[in-house]
Amino acid sequence: MSAQIFETDANHPHLTRLIAELDAYQYPLYPPESFQGINVTALDAGEIFCFMARVDDDWAGCACLYISRPEGNEKPIAEMKRVYVNPLYRGQGIASLLIDAMESKLKTLGYRDLFLETGVFQEKAITLYEKLGYARTEAFGDYCQAPDPLSVYMMKSVA
Fold it and tell me: What domains are defined for the chain?
C-alpha cells in the first residue's frame, strides 16, 4: 500500500474533512488561546498550496504550504501548515511524503527557508520534523506579536 501525493485546491471537500479531523485531535490538547489552527480558505494575505495523500480509495493525509505577503519591506515567509495523517495510515511515511512535496514546491517557487509552528504536546510530530532536518528557532512572522509558550517554532533551509 503506497501513497500518492496530489496538489489540490484549498476548497477540496476531502481536505476540509482531513483538517476537521486534525482540529478534533488538537482542540483537547491546548487551551483556546494556544490553538493555532487556521482556515486555509481564509488565507487571503498570501498564497496557499495544498497537498493530499491518497492510499487506494481513501484520502489519508494533508498538508499546506503558505507563503505570506507581508506589507512594506518585510520578506515573505514560507510556512508549513495543517500537516495531518489519519491514524489508520500513520507509520507509513505519508507525512514525510507530504512534507517533501511542500519542500519541492517551495524550491520551484524560488524560496529557501520553510518554517513551521507546532504544539509542545505533539512530540511525535516534533520528532518527525527533527528527523527531516528541521531545527527549533524563535517565533517568526505573526507569531512574533505574541509568542505562545505552548508552541514550538522550527525552520529548515531547503535550497
Answer: 3-157 (3.40.630.30)
